[in-house]
Input
Amino acid sequence: MKQIDTKPSLRLFFALWPKEATRTALASWQPRLREQCRGKEMHADTLHSTLVFLGEVDAHRLEALQLAAQEVMGSAFEIEFDVARYWGHNHIVYAAPQTVPIELTELVRTLEQHLHKHHFHFEPREFKPHVTLLRHTQWSDAPLPQMNTVRWPVREFVLVQSLSDEQGARYEVLARFGLRD
Ligand code: 2AM
Output
C-alpha cells in the first residue's frame, strides 16, 4: 500500500517541476559549481523550484488542498535562470533568475491567497525563486562563475510530497495544475 494512504500527515510543497531538457540544462551547472564550492550535488531528478512550502499537512486534507490549487487561474510563462548564487544561512548554491516574471509573482500570490482561504497555514516568507543545485557548500560573497542561461517554459505547477528514507529526501509529484496559454 502506498504511504499516502496510511500516514496521518504528509510533508508537502508546491513547486515548478522541470521537464527533461530544462532539468538537464540546470544539472549541467553542477560540476563547475561543485569544483568551486564543494558540497553535494542535488540529484538531477530532484531539481525543482519551490513556490510554497506547506510542511506537514493532515492526509485527510489532501483533496481539499488539491481543490484549492485547482482554483488558481494562472498564466503560462517562461523564466530564465541566468545566475548562480550562494546562501550562507543554509549553505546552498542555487540557480536564480535575475528578472522574475510577473506571472510567477502573481501565481505565488494567488496560490497563497487560495490556500489561506481554505485554511491551510504556512510560514509567511518572501518569495525568492531558486533551484537548489548543491547542498553543504562553503562559499563567500564573491560572485560565482557565469553560467549558460536556462530558459524554462512553465505551463503547470505541481504538488509534491517530500519523503525521507536511508538515501535522504525523495520527492513524489502528487498532482499537476495547468496554467493558461
Ligand atoms: P531549498 O531548496 O531552498 O532548501 C523541499 O524541502 C523544498 O521546500 C526545497 O526546495 C526547500 O527549499 C523548500 N523549503 C522551503 N521552506 C522550507 C522549510 N522550512 N523546510 C524545508 N524545506 C523548505
Observations:
- The two ends are 37 Å apart (CA to CA).
- Strands lie at 9-16, 40-41, 49-58, 77-81, 83-87, 92-96, 131-135, 150-154, 156-165, 168-178.
- The chain has a mean pLDDT of 95.
